[in-house]
Amino acid sequence: MAGECSSFDCEQTLIVTWANAALLDFVESWVDHVRRQGYTNFLVGAMDKEIGQALVSRGIPAFAMYERSANHSGVGAGHLDWGGASFHKMGRQKISLAQLFLRTGLSLLLVDVDAIVLGDVLAYFQQYPQ
Q1: Domain limits at 26?
Q2: What's the pLDDT at 60?
Q3: How far apart are CA 44 and CA 109, in angstroms?
Q4: What CATH number is associated with residue 103?
């Protein structure tokens, strides 16, 4: 992994983003940038079956955010409409996602899929562990 770890336990940090099939190109760019920094401690939440299959076929570490009995998380392409019902549902899912991973005891860095990682962000957080 990139950077040195000390007081901020970047060895125990998971970097997570999420997307549906409408944002596959964003995911590919996000993963490319994260990998350029040398990170392997990342996951992408698949909000629908279509992107889940695409991520697996591309070798991108992923997990399903949709119900087994459904093909999607209930947040469709309309999540792009700021302030709409799907947008708000996606916000609630972010909170659930954070709670799920924090229960594991890991540190968590949630990064929106449209935010590109251009540097060693964990080294930055290590400088300011508080």
Answers
A1: 13-122
A2: 97
A3: 12
A4: 3.40.50
